[in-house]
Design brief:
This protein has 176 residues and is mainly alpha-helical. 49% of the residues lie in helices and 6% in strands. It has a two-stranded antiparallel sheet with strand order 1-2.
């Protein structure tokens, strides 16, 4: 079975759109929700995590194309529109990569260097792109949990409830 990258792209596009709307309804302050005392020290707020999702996407594409890495530190983690504008930019770069990358090179391992850790990861572009999309899905779930723990309930974001691959999910009326 082959994983269709377009399905994961479509799902994460839908997920981003839902989060963008939800966050916008609550205002920029929600981005300052703490990730808690036991979180990764790199990400102290929900805004930090959102920027990380979009930064990872942008930087993996840059690594795969052997381009200089974008410095994302200047992107505000306290402004919903600034974050999601950056997210649109990172998604555009990923989609262009997926559309234009030579088919015969998708499964050829590449060595990607991670400057801050002196690590090199050898993986195919296909595996890296799947990682980027699953990484995003995992972090949105983490964000949902953090917000719920802080009294902010969200919507259903599961793949089953998405429009991807069709279907419909709705609540039935209780029978009296």
């Amino acid at each position: 079975m082959v994983i269709d990258l377009n399905l994961l792209l479509e799902y994460t596009d839908w997920e981003r759109q839902k989060w963008h709307e939800w966050l916008r309804q609550r205002g920029d302050r929600v981005l300052m929700t703490s990730t808690g005392p036991n979180s990764d020290a790199r990400f102290e707020t929900v805004g930090d995590l959102v920027r990380h999702v979009f930064s990872a996407e942008k930087r993996y594409v840059e690594r795969l194309l052997d381009k200089p890495l974008t410095d994302t530190a200047s992107i505000s983690t306290e402004n919903i529109e600034a974050l999601f504008n950056f997210g649109r930019e990172s998604r555009k770069a990923l989609r262009e990569f997926v559309e234009k990358f030579p088919l015969q090179q998708w499964d050829v391992p590449q060595g990607l260097r991670f400057p801050n850790s002196n690590s090199v990861v050898s993986a195919s572009p296909r595996k890296i792109v799947i990682h980027v999309l699953l990484h995003e899905i995992r972090h949105w779930a983490q964000i949902a949990t953090l917000l719920r723990q802080n009294g902010l309930k969200g919507d259903f974001h599961d793949f089953l409830f998405s429009p991807v691959l069709g279907g419909d999910a709705h609540r039935e009326q209780a029978k009296v």
